[in-house]
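Re: beginner question about structure tokens

> Can someone show what the tokenized structure looks like for a real chain? I only ever see the sequence side.

Sure, here's an example I had lying around. Input first:
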Amino acid sequence: MLKNRVLLLLVCVFFSLSSCDSKYYFDVYKSVPKKWHKDSVVSFKIDPPDSINPYNLFINLRNTSAYKYNNLFLIVEMVFPHGKTVKDTLEYKMAEPSGKFLGTGFGDIKENKLWYKEQVVFNESGKYKVNIQQAMRENGKVNGVEELEGITDVGFSIEQKKIKK
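And the corresponding structure tokens:
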């Protein structure tokens, strides 16, 4: 009896997860050292699913309570297969004014799914590369934060919205 309930529960969880509104084509995380050095670049090599459909691109971060800022600046560079490079400086809100961290998760680690680009068509054939680097600055200081504490993992994901019929 208990075995049947556990099996039923697992089947329900499987179908609820597989019926989400979007489909991941790429979802990879990379750990960063205890302190993310300003010169350290986290890179992802991407083999796009196709060259026709539009995709949404996300930067995914995991942070702990050791993260002491309410925002995060990143330099994100996309290198296309034929050499073109697009570089963006992005700012993301990481905490409310009260200091409560945004994101999901229980306990000390929060996970944030941050928009990078939407409706991107990978119209060049070949591998793409995405480079992510922290670019934090403290107020009134010219030099960047040398070693950023509290970010444990940096991820990148590509997803396509399912077309509803």
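Each token stands for a local structural state, so reading them left to right follows the chain. DSSP finds one helix and ten strands in the chain.
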